[in-house]
Structure formats: structure tokens, C-alpha cells
Write a structure and sequence with these properties.
The chain is built from 25 helices and 7 strands. With about 675 residues, it is an alpha+beta fold. The chain has a domain of about 150 residues: Histidine kinase-like ATPase, C-terminal domain (Heat Shock Protein 90, 2-Layer Sandwich).
Length: about 675
């Protein structure tokens, strides 16, 4: 039972509430004030007034809309205007869509897109993209529908049109929902609602509430679904949008049916059908009759149920709504099965299969026709542009024939002005194209950079995992030896094993500390808090925990630091820098050699230098360091391991404090790391 209800919900969402909110983008004055303004105008001023009135009636009154469209056609027959012509074709495309003539809707809408591109109206180009996407959506062709919705989103974002952006996300959510990707649909709907609420657009948000309600109902969250549907219904009722209110009532009825509350389901089903009948909205009456017939069948009121299905079938055939016709045959098959008239049930089941085959054939033919249409579209667009140019030339020729020789000079001036304007528009279009190309290039560069960073991070995590495994394995191994052979080992051996455990734990702790610092840095969780800090105190703090490593390698640690030498830096960050640089000096120094930590002033900079006499740095590592790339660590002179994180953190923290980190190194002779900060 719930499977059939869900199918009714999907059909309702597909044919009654298309995903696009294709309404007038900006507030329009009342028709009375516009008619008053129109009364005192002539020529192009009157044409613009008629265009404003048509915008008012758009999606409110189809008859009034088409009346003013006819007036606009008369205007441009006398004085052609590409922008007005674009709106004429936009409104004709909408009317064809309402009349279920998708092919003519496509044709008019594509022509409107060509003209809006000509006048560089990006906002209208966005709405036209929404209409094209909705036509494909109605045909069940979700891939081109998604492409047009994304194209419209790009147009809206270019002019920061929030209502359009919210609409695009709502449409993307709807097409994702129909394609079976509920998670993506939920994200798109949430983004749409957030944009609408922040921009104060309450009316367009109502459709998103309905769509989200359908999604929740499909997932079995019926009560939460009803909460969203009632919010949509309240809004449509307040705006007196009875056509969409009927749709929402139908969805609410299906929700109550899932809750097995048949009285409420029947009540809202009757309300939905009554509203659609009142509005003479046959697109709403068909699913309303199907739903009501379904509920009457559940109550075993078979005669009334049959009457609803017969009327729905008649209207579906009249309007050539194959999907609804298939649904009615399915319901009739179930109805006669309940009445134990299995012969009739089987007959309607066969009819349903035949309609289903016709639908599949129609979809296949439609895809073939669309491919041919797309193939010929460029030549048709060129022909359309040529036709517009011919109309402009003909209008000018008619005007020239009526003018005297005295007005010839004026005509020449007008032609020159028009040429310059067209050239300026062409230049603007070229600039827009260049801008779009630059944006695409930047996106490609960002994508490549992201790939490089992802590869570096993957490599880093691999090294960290390897370097963590070694000391942890050493700690585990020596601890196991002590535990198993404690009584067999002498004190010297035990002491040696314990030192190895301590060393492994220290290395693991150091690596984890560096990994934590690096992660916080990558997530921008590090906040710089500068204060005057004594360098001697910082160095003493960092080296006191490293003396055992110094003594083990028999190194000489020499300090050349002035007592009054200070830096204005973040103490903890610079301690991390010094700790890593000194640890590296110890790691790569040859036993018995000297490490010198000194301070000096270079112009206006206070500097700290850490010099060792060790292995030095290879040219490859030095190049990676200079280019902010990933640094691959090498073994120390006593086989110490590392991840390369220390140098990366040191450079990052130094630069965050306004300083610089430089390295001088000769392989086999040692390295000097110098950090400098402005006073």
C-alpha cells in the first residue's frame, strides 16, 4: 500500500510542482498604478509600461499575460527592441509549458536565451536556464536538467541574485531526489532554505518546504514530513496560491495515509480536489481524482472509487498525460481485483503494460529528437540572429523612405551611433568571456594545487605511520623482553633496555606533538598572541629536555646569546620552532662535534642562528623547503627517524609571526638555520 502512495507522491511532485520557482524576480507595482502610468505614454514608453504589466500577470493570470504579450508584439513590429522580444519569447515558453507543449516551450525558451545573451542580462539568463532545466525535468531527462540548473546557478552567482541562487539549489535538490540521491537532495534543500531565509524570501521557500516534506515522507519520517508540508500549506494559503495549495493538500493526504489516519487522509484529498476543480486546474484534478479514488477503494466504496478513476482516465487521455494514464490503469486493476472481477483486473493490467511500453517508446524517440534538435540548434540560432538583424534593417529602411532629404543626415548619425553601441556591447561581451576564461583557469589552477596538497598529505601520513611504528615497536619489544626475562637480565642490560624504551617513547611523543601542531596549523586553529620574550629564556626552556640526547652523542652545545636580547613574538609558537630546529641539529650532527646557538642583529631584524657540523641538507630537500613543498625526512647520524614535519611547522610558525626562516647548508659539512624577526 505504501509503495503505491509513494508513487502517487512522486507523480504529484513531478507534474504539479515543478522544481523551478519561475516567478517574477523583483517586486512589480500594482496593475492599477501601471495602467495609470501607461495612459499618458506612447511609443517605446508605452511598450515598457506594457512589459511591466505583463511581468505583474506572469504566473498570476495566463489570459491577461498573453493579452499584453500580443500588445508587445505589435510594439516591436513597429519599433524592434531585442529585450522586449526576449521577454515575449520567455512568456510564450511559459504558456507552452503550462499547456503541456514541451517542444514549443523548449523552442521559445531557447530563442529567449539567445536574445538575453545578446543584451547581456545575466539574471534573466539564469531564469531561462531554470526553465530549460524544468522542461528536461518534465521529460524525465535528469542529466541535461542538472546541467541547465548548474548553468543558471552560475549566472545568478555572477550578479549575486540571492532569490535565483536559492531557486537553483531547490531545483538541484528536486532533480537529485527524483534521481534517487536523497542525501544530496537534502543538502541542496537545506542550502536553498538557508539562502531564502537569510534574504527574507519567504514565498519561494514554500516550495522547498514541500519538496523537503516529500523527501522525509519517502524516508519514513512521516510526522516530520507533515510538519514541513503544513508550513508550505500555510504559506500558499496566505498568498492565495490555490493551485499549489491543492498540491500540498494532496501530499498531506498521502502522509496521513502512511499514518493510517484515513479520516484525515480523505479530508485533505477532498480539499485538494476541490481547490483544483475551483481553479479549473486539470493538471491538479487528475492526481486529485486518483488519490481520492484510492482512498475510496480502501473504504470499499467501489462505485465512487470507479467514478473517480474513470474521470481521471478521461482527463489523462484528453491531455495526453501518459504517466497518469498508466497510474489510473494500475489503480483500476487493483480496484477490480478487490471486487473479485479478475477478468477486468487483468484487462486493465494489460492496458497499463501497453501504456508503459508507449511511454518507454516516447522517451526513446524524445531522446533521439533532442539529439537532432541540439545538432541543428546552432544553425537555428544563427538564422534567428540574422532574422533579427534583417528586421532592424527593414525598419530603418521603412523609416528612411518616409523621411525627406533633410532628415538623411540624421539617419546617418543614428546608424553611426547604433554601430558604436553594438561595438561597445561586443567589447563588453568579449570582456565577459575573458573574465569567464580567467575564472576557469583559476579554478583549474586551484584544482591542481589541491591535488598536489592531497598527494603531499597522503605521503606525509604514510611517513608518519611508518615513523610511529618504529619507536612504538621498539618500546613494545624491549618492554616484552624485560617482562619475559627480567630475572635473567643483569642490571646493566635492564638499564639499557629501559633507556631504549624511554628513547622510543620520547620520539613517539615528539612526533605526535609535531603532528598535532601541523594539524592545528592546517585547520587555521592557531592564533598568534605576541609579547616581548627573552631569547635566552626560550632557548634554555627548549634545551633542558634535550641534554640527554646531547650527552649520548657526546656533543658540545655552545650558547652565544645576549641577556637582553628579546623578540616580540608568540612565545609558544617560537618555542616550537626552536625545539624543532635544535632537535634537528642534534639529530644530524656527527658525534663529538659542536652545535652553536647564537643571536645577532641584521639591520632592523633580530635573528637567532642554530649551526651544526653534521650531514647537511641535500639540494632536493633544500629546494622543497624553499618552495613550501613537502619535505622528506632522512635518517640522523645515529639512525634517528623523522617525518619532515618539524621543518614545515618551523617555517609556518616563523612566517605567522612575521619572520623569515633561511637555511645555509653544504652536504657533509653541516647546516645553519636562521630565523629573523623585525624589531
Amino acid at each position: 500500500m505504501q509503495l503505491k502512495i509513494l508513487r502517487i507522491i512522486l507523480l504529484t511532485g513531478l507534474f504539479l510542482m515543478p522544481p523551478v520557482i519561475y516567478a517574477q524576480n523583483d517586486p512589480v507595482e500594482s496593475p492599477d498604478s501601471l495602467l495609470a502610468l501607461r495612459g499618458g505614454t506612447t511609443g517605446m514608453e508605452r511598450a515598457m509600461a506594457d512589459l511591466s504589466i505583463a511581468q505583474y500577470y506572469f504566473q498570476k493570470d495566463d489570459d491577461s499575460l498573453m493579452h499584453y504579450v500580443a500588445l508587445l508584439e505589435e510594439h516591436i513590429a513597429e519599433d524592434y527592441n531585442a529585450r522586449i522580444d526576449a521577454f515575449i519569447r520567455k512568456y510564450k515558453g511559459y504558456k507552452a509549458y503550462r499547456d503541456l507543449d514541451v517542444e514549443r516551450s523548449m523552442e521559445f525558451t531557447r530563442e529567449a536565451m539567445v536574445l538575453f545573451r545578446q543584451v547581456l542580462d545575466f539574471k534573466e539568463m539564469g531564469w531561462i536556464s531554470m526553465r530549460l532545466g524544468t522542461n528536461y525535468y518534465r521529460l524525465g531527462d535528469f542529466v541535461p536538467a542538472t546541467e541547465h540548473y548548474l548553468q543558471g546557478l552560475a549566472f545568478f552567482e555572477q550578479v549575486d541574485h540571492q532569490r535565483g541562487i536559492g531557486t537553483a539549489y531547490n531545483n538541484l535538490g528536486r532533480v537529485s531526489y527524483e534521481a534517487g540521491d536523497s542525501d544530496k537532495a537534502r543538502k541542496y534543500f537545506a542550502t536553498s532554505l538557508e539562502i531564502f531565509e537569510e534574504a527574507g524570501h519567504n514565498k519561494p521557500a514554500l516550495k522547498t518546504y514541500n519538496n523537503l516534506g516529500l523527501l522525509l515522507m519517502e524516508e519514513g519520517q512521516t510526522r516530520e514530513s507533515l510538519r514541513h508540508l503544513f508550513m508550505a500549506a500555510e504559506g500558499f494559503k496566505k498568498d492565495n496560491d490555490l493551485r499549489r495549495l491543492a498540491l500540498v493538500y494532496g501530499n498531506i493526504a498521502n502522509g496521513y495515509d502512511q499514518l493510517q489516519s484515513m479520516d484525515s487522509a480523505m479530508l485533505f484529498s477532498r480539499k485538494a480536489l476541490a481547490l483544483s476543480t475551483q481553479q479549473q486546474d486539470e493538471m491538479g484534478m487528475v492526481p486529485g481524482l486518483i488519490n481520492l479514488g484510492y482512498f475510496l477503494r480502501l473504504e470499499q466504496r467501489y462505485d465512487s472509487s470507479l467514478a473517480c478513476f474513470d474521470r481521471a482516465l478521461e482527463m489523462a487521455k484528453e491531455k495526453k498525460l501518459s504517466a497518469y494514464e498508466e497510474q489510473v490503469y494500475l489503480e483500476l486493476s487493483d480496484l477490480f481485483a478487490d471486487m473479485e472481477d479478475y477478468q477486468s483486473a487483468y484487462r486493465y493490467h494489460i492496458l497499463r503494460d501497453s501504456v508503459n511500453n508507449v511511454i518507454r517508446d516516447e522517451k526513446s524517440q524524445r531522446r533521439i529528437d533532442e539529439m537532432l534538435f541540439s545538432y541543428n540548434q546552432r544553425s537555428r540560432d544563427n538564422e534567428l540572429l540574422k532574422l533579427r538583424e534583417d528586421q532592424e534593417i527593414q525598419a530603418r529602411l521603412n523609416l528612411i523612405l518616409l523621411l525627406t532629404i533633410i532628415l538623411t543626415f540624421v539617419v546617418v548619425i543614428i546608424l553611426i551611433t547604433g554601430y558604436r553601441r553594438n561595438r561597445h556591447q561586443k567589447q563588453l561581451l568579449e570582456q565577459k568571456n575573458i573574465l569567464l576564461e580567467e575564472i576557469n583557469n583559476r579554478l583549474e589552477e586551484s584544482e591542481n594545487e589541491l591535488k598536489v596538497r592531497n598527494n603531499e598529505q597522503s605521503k606525509l601520513f604514510s611517513i608518519v605511520a611508518h615513523d610511529l611504528r618504529n619507536p612504538i615497536s621498539a618500546v613494545s619489544g624491549f618492554a616484552e623482553l624485560i617482562g619475559e626475562k627480567y630475572d635473567e637480565l643483569d642490571d646493566e642490560t635492564r638499564k639499557e633496555y629501559i633507556e631504549q624504551i624511554s628513547l622510543g617513547a620520547f620520539r613517539t611523543l615528539s612526533l605526535l606533538e609535531n603532528l598535532l601542531l601541523w594539524a592545528r596549523s592546517q585547520m587555521d586553529l592557531v592564533k598568534v598572541k605576541k609579547e616581548d620574550s627573552s631569547v635566552k629564556e626560550l632557548v634554555d626552556t627548549c634545551t633542558q629536555h634535550m641534554m640527554s640526547a646531547v650527552e649520548k652523542k657526546n656533543l658540545i652545545l655552545t650558547f652565544d646569546i645576549r641577556e637582553d636580547f628579546t623578540l616580540h613574538v608568540d612565545r609558544e609558537m617560537i618555542k616550537a620552532v626552536l625545539r624543532n630546529l635544535i632537535a634537528n641539529a642534534i639529530k644530524f650532527s656527527f658525534p663529538g662535534r659542536e652545535i652553536i646557538i647564537s643571536t645577532f642583529i641584521d639591520g632592523t631584524d633580530h635573528c637567532i642562528a642554530i649551526k651544526d657540523h653534521g650531514t647537511g641538507i641535500s639540494p632536493e630537500v633544500k629546494a622543497s623547503f624553499s618552495s613550501n613543498g613537502f619535505i622528506t625526512s632522512t635518517e640522523g647520524t645515529a639512525k634517528e627517524t623523522g617525518s619532515g614535519l618539524g621543518l614545515m611547522i618551523s617555517k609556518d610558525y616563523t612566517e605567522r609571526n612575521g619572520g623569515t626562516l633561511k637555511v645555509e647548508s653544504d652536504p657533509g659539512k653541516g647546516s645553519v638555520f636562521t630565523i629573523c624577526f623585525p624589531v
